[in-house]
Amino acid sequence: MDYLQRLSVEWYEYQGYFVHTDLWVGLESDGSYECELDVVAFHPLRRHLVHLEPSFDLLSWQERERQFEPKFAAGRKYLHRLFGGEEQIHLEQIALIVADEETPRTIAGARLLRLSDFMALMLEALSTFDMAEALVPEQWPLIRTLQFIAAYRARLAPLLARSAPQPRA
After folding, report:
1. Does an H or E element contain 160, and which?
2. Which of 17, 63, 81, 169 is 20 to 30 A from 40 in CA distance terms?
3. What's the pTM?
4. How far apart are CA 121 and CA 72, in angstroms?
5. Are 4 and 115 a contacting pair, CB within 8 Å?
6. Sheet holding 48-55, edge to edge
């Protein structure tokens, strides 16, 4: 499991979702499957279903669209059947990518989320907890690390600012 997949699995599990990785959908007559979905997370109380496709690729936007389209189409086609019907489940599809540049808001019918924005969302949520009262359990080491970073941000900020890459001219 790569870093982006592990990070998203930990985050959704930490929030109370049941998470499945590498879910094969669309059983064909020859025993093969139509597609593999990287991360599927389901919150039973909220009836919220998340299909997340993390990617470190350096492809063009057009190539990314071609890469993500079959996966998100398969998710839309099969996930409601697995989790109780379209009218009962809210399906959210997310492409999680590493990108510094401005990105489109959607790709292949899914929301596009940059890793930096995902980490900012997590840090913001984790910074509201007092570690003495709500330490992230050790089963989620990446999320626990982010909680420490959020808690020690005042001490870390000068170091991070000093080591930040300079903008290109």
Report:
1. helix 153-163
2. 63
3. 0.87
4. 23
5. yes
6. 18-27, 33-43, 48-55, 90-97, 110-114, 106-107
> For residues 88 and 77, what is the distance between their CA atoms, to the nearest angstrom?
15
Q: β-strands 33-43, 48-55: how paired?
A: antiparallel
Total domain count for the chain?
A: 1
Is 124 among the domain residues? yes
Backbone angles phi, psi at 25, to 5 degrees: -130, 160
CATH of the domain at 101: 3.40.1350.10
Domain that holds residue 8: 3-163
Query: Letter for the amino acid at 95?
Result: A
- Quick check: is 125 in a domain? yes
Residue 81 within any structural domain of the chain: yes
Which tokens go with 86?
Answer: 């379209």
